[in-house]
Specification:
heterodimer, A: alpha+beta, Ubiquitin-like (UB roll), 5-stranded mixed β-sheet, 2 helices, globular, B: alpha/beta, FAD/NAD(P)-binding domain, 5-stranded parallel β-sheet, 8 helices, 25 strands, about 25% helix
Chain lengths: ~110, ~350
């Protein structure tokens, strides 16, 4: 399995080009945490169960993503600052198909 | 004034297990938590989710783990101050701490254990203009006394369990309840959704979906809200607006206690998880040190080691030796005694 490149804009508007493994069952929220691109306690609060929306991201590239499960859709329907391209980072697991994916963290 | 040996801030799994470990050392504990019930995240966020890495439990629901921890600590008669947030701390000349909550309840002890997880849970507030002006003037995020809603016109916003459960509860005490949610589907437990549907069919609850509240109006207090549905905005008269959009943890006042904080967590010495303030410990998800993992099982370990140092602070110079519960049993503060059955020694040849 190979690594892929991701482009992540943090909450201060700074863009980070990062390398993410595709063989560790990691999701976008976990990549953000592993690179410490958002302060602890402000992201992945529920641990990745689609129960808090603290990892809401705006997907800014045209990649094909897994469809939203009911839990994610329901959580986003209660979250704030939701846009058309909002997704929960914890629900998008990284695969080789995501090479070059770019996204932005939603406000806290 | 509540006096105890260890004040534990946070009644999540780590805080609850501290009661047990302290109890083995004959130390009494009192827990403070901002939530109205014990269990922390386990009971507030994911009570029905299974946990697979609690030693000895191949699988256990977070809610059941909380129940078990409460049962395990019960014999050591912990005190609880629930629904109040630890706000201030002070230390007197004799080294005794006083912890005061946001409601003014005071607690005194020679040792403080902060087991606050990610912080105290604060309601997530919708971004509506002037909402802070209307807080406690018609806008409430937490229902403290349901009786104030009796015979009143109440709008609840949200689609999760608390929005559903409170809609049911308030409708049953004769409040005129309208539930507003951004989509047609609700995220709550199936039986709650079913109950709301029944109440709607009996005209006891009004449901407006998919819709959201866009404005708050009123001179000195909240009088009207504007509900937007299908891009049509309608004014709606009411007495109370209760937005229930979940809770998010904030380290809050603890961050002003003079503790060394790094990345929203309290730095500790891994010898006994003491902070930079002597007598104040931080255990569980709230602390940080090289190699830290935010796991419940790590919190249990930290609580156990912390209690050994707490004993020495509380009983200076007094001898103590670590004991196994299988050998010495457990003497509860409630007079109970648990111990292993003695083996029966009998001769076979007689």
């Amino acid at each position: 399995m190979s690594d892929i490149n991701l482009s992540i804009k943090d909450r201060d508007g700074k863009t980070h080009e990062v390398v993410a493994p595709t063989d560790m069952a990691m999701n976008l929220m976990e990549i953000i945490r592993s690179y410490e691109l958002a302060p602890e306690g402000t992201i992945g609060v529920c641990g990745g169960m689609a129960m808090c929306a603290s990892c809401q991201c705006y997907i800014t590239s045209e990649h094909e993503l897994p469809n939203m499960e009911d839990e994610e859709e329901a959580m986003l329907s209660e979250a704030f600052n939701v846009k058309e391209n909002s997704r929960l980072g914890c629900q998008i697991f990284i695969t080789t198909k995501h090479e070059g994916l770019s996204f932005e963290l939603a406000p806290e | 004034m509540i006096k105890t040996d260890i004040i534990i801030i946070g009644a999540g799994p780590t805080g609850l297990f501290t009661v047990f470990e302290a109890g083995l050392l004959k130390l009494k504990c009192h827990l403070i938590d901002a939530l109205p019930q014990a269990g922390g995240q386990c009971s507030e966020i994911y009570p029905k989710k299974p946990i697979y890495d609690i030693p000895g439990f191949p699988e256990i629901l977070a809610g059941d783990l909380t129940e078990n921890l409460l049962e395990q600590s019960k014999q050591f008669e912990p005190g609880f101050t629930l629904g109040e947030r630890a706000e201030e701390i002070s230390k007197d000349k004799d080294g005794i701490f006083t912890v005061t909550t946001n409601k003014g309840t005071q607690h005194q002890a020679p040792v403080v254990a902060i087991a606050g997880g990610l912080g105290s849970f604060e309601p997530r507030k919708p971004m509506l203009e002037n909402i802070s002006f209307y807080e406690d003037k018609g806008v409430e995020y937490i229902i403290k006394d349901p009786e104030i809603y009796r015979d009143k016109k109440v709008v609840i916003a949200g689609g999760g369990d608390s929005a559903l459960d409170w809609s049911i509860f308030l409708a049953n005490i004769n409040a005129d309840v309208t539930l507003v949610h951004r989509r047609n589907e609700f995220r709550g437990a199936l039986d709650s959704v079913e109950k709301v549907r029944e109440l709607k069919n009996k005209n006891k609850i009004k449901i407006i979906t998919p819709a959201e509240i866009t404005q708050l109006k009123g001179k000195d207090k909240l009088e009207k809200i504007v509900i937007s549905r299908d891009k049509i905005e309608t004014e709606y008269e009411l007495d109370h607006f209760i937005p229930l959009f979940g809770l998010s943890p904030k380290l809050g006042p603890i961050s002003n206690w003079g503790l060394d904080i790094e990345k929203n967590a309290i730095k500790v010495d891994t010898f006994d998880y003491q902070t930079n303030i002597e007598g104040v410990f931080a255990i569980g998800d709230v602390n940080t040190y090289p190699g830290k993992l935010k796991l419940i099982l790590c919190g249990f370990h930290e609580a156990t080691l912390m209690c050994q140092s707490a004993y020495k602070i509380i009983n200076p110079g007094k001898k103590n030796i670590f004991k196994y519960t299988t050998v010495s049993g457990i003497d509860g503060f409630d007079g109970s005694r648990k111990e292993a059955k003695k083996p029966v020694v009998q001769a076979i040849n007689n």
